[in-house]
UniProtKB/TrEMBL annotation:
Listed Pfam families: CMD
Gene3D superfamilies the record matches: AhpD-like
Lineage: Eukaryota, Fungi, Dikarya, Ascomycota, Pezizomycotina
Molecular function in Gene Ontology: peroxiredoxin activity
Residues spanning the signal sequence: none
InterPro entries: AhpD-like, CMD-like
Organism whose genome encodes this protein: Fusarium culmorum
Domain spans labelled Carboxymuconolactone decarboxylase-like: 100-159
The protein's name in its UniProt record: Carboxymuconolactone decarboxylase-like domain-containing protein
Amino acid sequence: MRVPHHINILFSPLVLKPHFLDSLYFIIIIPNLKFSSQVFGAHHLHQADCQEQTAIMRIPYVSNPPETKTEEHAAIVKRIEERRAPRPLQSLDLALLHSPHVADGWNSFLGAVRTKTSLSDDLRELAISRVAVCNKAWYEWKHHAPLAVKGGVSEAGLEAIKQDTLGERPAELSEKQWAVILFTDEMTRNVQVEDETFDRLREFFNEQEIVEITATVACYNCVSRFLVALDVGERNGTGPEAVTGH
């Protein structure tokens, strides 16, 4: 292994005198934490360095397939697998299954929001994707931005909601879509929604749809906060991935 030039200097006969040995640690180890872990076997790197080398969720995922201790827990896993099919269990599932009953309730709620409302795919996925941007939940963005495009949202429209601060409505997004995005943005960032923003939403949606939009935004704020707090999917500190094609 080649030793960096500044380390060679430190080990020169001129430097390595007895009175200097006591301070050698501070000269070599402290400024060169990563190097010291390789050469001197140091075990306590700065936390940021560790995260750069191996990004992992803050708690371990359960095994996949999950181990179950009771028939009740096995039934919970089966219900989650059935909702995910034909896809496998996701990182989020393997985090939640540390608490099977929480995972079960989560699965039911998410299943209803995703598949049992009257909302069109573009509106639902625009709302979810905007929540992801507001909360910097890039694992959520990774999974839902492509669904927005699949639901008919243009790449330019998706680019508009990817910005930290919303500007003017782009031509690629309809007034109806924009009303949902503005409502989502205020509800996520401020919790309280201004009357003007709510009145705009009412121009396009009935009571059932408003409840479903509100439930979707609330649900995916819950999801995003869980994802970011535990770094599920190891996406913290990255950014929104580009989404192309329909």
